[in-house]
Amino acid sequence: MTTRPLPAVASLADDLPTWLPAQRWFAAKGRDIGSAQVERAALLWEGAEPGAPSLLHALVDADGERYQLLLGVVDEVPDHLRGALVGQLEDGLHAYDATHDAELMGGLLDLFAAHSTAGGVDWLPEPGVEIQTGLRARPIGVEQSNTSIVFGEHYILKVYRRPVLGESRDVELHRALAGAGSTRVAAPVAVMRTDDTVLGFAQRFLGDAAEGWATATASVRDLLAEADLHAGEAGGDFAGEARRLGAAVAAVHADLATALGTEPVGQAEMAAGADAMHARLDSVLREVPALAEHEPVLRAAFDAVRGLPGTTVQQVHGDLHLGQVLRTTTGWVLIDFEGEPDAPPAERDRAKSPLRDVAGMLRSFDYAALHLLAGEDPDNQRLTRAAEWAERNRSAFCDGYAEVGADPRADAVLLRAFELDKAVYEVGYEHRNRPDWVPIPLAAITRVTARR
Ligand SMILES: Nc1ncnc2c1ncn2[C@@H]1O[C@H](COP(=O)(O)OP(=O)(O)O)[C@@H](O)[C@H]1O
Ligand SMILES: O=P(O)(O)O[C@H]1O[C@H](CO)[C@@H](O[C@H]2O[C@H](CO)[C@@H](O)[C@H](O)[C@H]2O)[C@H](O)[C@H]1O
Q1: How many angstroms separate the alpha carbon of residue 203 from the centre of ligand 1?
Q2: According to the model, what pLDDT value does residue 360 have?
Q3: What is the per-residue pLDDT for 2?
Q4: The pLDDT of residue 1
Q5: Do residues 408 and 343 share a domain?
Q6: What is the residue with the minimal CA distance to atom 9 of ligand 1?
Q7: Which is the closest atom of ligand 2 to the Cα of 360?
Q8: Same domain, 348 and 407
């Protein structure tokens, strides 16, 4: 058999500065790319017959940020994949984002099943897992920071778009929880990796799952459609689910503590934590001047943490919100333990107070309640009822948490600071990603600081 030369993907350097920023998962949104190079490209397999696409694995560097691509390379891109075109290569072939190509993606299961080393990547099933091949592949097509492909009703593979050097906390924490017998995560199935970088992670696909965000916002919609009812009276009341979710998060925290340990921290670390919250505020203030009117109350809330004697830290989820929880027929499951997408890896890996996750979820109830009203003329009646929904579910979540762990409301100073710190993060996140939504965390800062 003759092996064709590796397609000239290096020549994509001209197209990447236009193509990358148009992708949902591109991190530096709103910023132009100065230059991009293909750092590493390797063939996973060649097209079986003339005209069939070959699959390549590539890592590209865009202004110092590393991105992972799976590229289909072919003479002519078929019509249904035109939207995925990345560019034309200097040898006349065309490259497209292969994660949109169900047929090519289906072949990845063969690599895992064979424990392959194709493309200089190790395709490794988890110990004891036998990969079933021949399943139909489909990209999930949701707004996400990475790209996930579902195989039949069995597996979901997340291809990390910005793979980081070293071990992946997403994989490690899933393994620790699954190893501890937790039913609150989807079981790990396989990883794709090089010696120093985890590139992808496959898990059991939970086909019976509904996203927490979709379920919670459906409940808010039901409430707002009923002109006179209170949150507890509307048909789609969410409080029972919020309570069960609180208990599930507390159980995950307990399992992570048992599997990976806890650590007491004292006043010096509390002060360092306050400094970090001030530093985040400094940086978001530079981007979003509208935050300035809240600066004094925010700084006071962060400074209050300096007076605390200490707390206990451990591994936590790190970016918990309603989009990171799935309701299955057997209960709530947490997904995506990567941590905040904008945080550097060392910061994501750091042990933290479990109240960080609680604060993230409390913020999310506020988002779920208020995002439906974003862009509407202010209507006090609707706003009050949405706020009532948020309060009802925030409290139910804390009640559920307290059934399994310590009541988060007992640490009011820390919880308030964490909630405000998260809202500051969200102001920056929304400013870069969804400018129409900046008022949601801004309004929350007004409310939380007024609650004092
Ligand atoms: N094990 C799973 N079973 C079913 N759906 C899942 C599973 N894991 C993730 N998903 C779906 O994939 C989406 C993206 O997953 P996530 O891990 O949050 O990716 P990202 O880090 O790119 O945001 C989730 O919102 C959820 O809808
Ligand atoms: O899911 P990711 O890890 O990519 O998290 C990032 O994106 C989230 C938005 O999808 C963002 O979450 C914010 O919006 C959610 C509604 O879309 C809301 O439920 C969250 O409470 C709110 O923080 C998250 O902050 C960001 O890191």
Answers
A1: 10
A2: 98
A3: 42
A4: 38
A5: yes
A6: 335
A7: 21
A8: yes
**Boundary (domain end) residue, out of 45, 73, 100:** 100
pLDDT for 451? 67
Angle subtended by helix axes 412-433 and 295-304, to nearest 10:
140
Q: Within a domain: residue 76?
A: yes
Structure tokens at 393: 């579910």
383 CB burial (10 A radius; 0-12, 13-18, 19+): middle
Instruction: State how far the Cα of 184 lies from the Cα of 225, in Å rounded to an integer.
Output: 33
**HSE value, Cβ hemisphere, 13 Å, CA-based, for 402:** 11
Closest residue by Cα to atom 8, ligand 1, is 335
Ligand number with the minimum distance to the CA of 428 = 2
Task: Look at residue 24 in the predicted model and tell me its pLDDT.
Answer: 85
Last residue of a domain, one of 67, 100, 133: 100
pTM: 0.93
Mode of pairing for the β-strands spanning 85-88 and 94-97? antiparallel
Alpha carbons 336 and 334: distance in angstroms, whole number: 7
Q: How far is CA 296 from the centre of its chain?
A: 31
Distance 236 CA to ligand 1 centre (A): 24
Q: What is the DSSP string of 206-271?
A: -TT-EEHHHHHHHHHHHHHHSTT--TTTSTT--HHHHHHHHHHHHHHHHHHHHHH-EEEE-HHHHH
Separation of alpha carbons 252 and 392, rounded Å:
23
122-149 pLDDT per residue, tens: 999 999 999 999 999 998 877 788 999 9
Question: Are residues 375 and 421 both part of a single domain?
Answer: yes
> Do 127 and 172 reside in the same domain of the chain?
yes
What atom of ligand 1 comes closest to residue 213's alpha carbon?
25
| List of the chain residues with pLDDT < 50 | 1-3
Give domain status of residue 109, yes or no.
no
For residue 161, the enclosing domain spans: 117-204
Alpha carbon distance 317, 312 (integer Å): 15
Find the 214 Cα to ligand 1 centroid distance in Å. 13
Residue 196, in any domain of the structure: yes
Give the binding-site residues of ligand 2, using a 6 Å CB cut-off: 145, 213, 319, 321-323, 336, 340-341, 363-364, 367, 426, 429
Residue 365 sits at the vertex; the CA angle it makes with 361 and 371, to the nearest 5 degrees, is 130
The number of distinct structural domains making up the chain is 3
ipTM: 0.96
Q: Which of 339, 272, 351 is nearest to 314 (CA)?
A: 351
**Residues 9, 94: Cα–Cα separation, whole Å:** 9
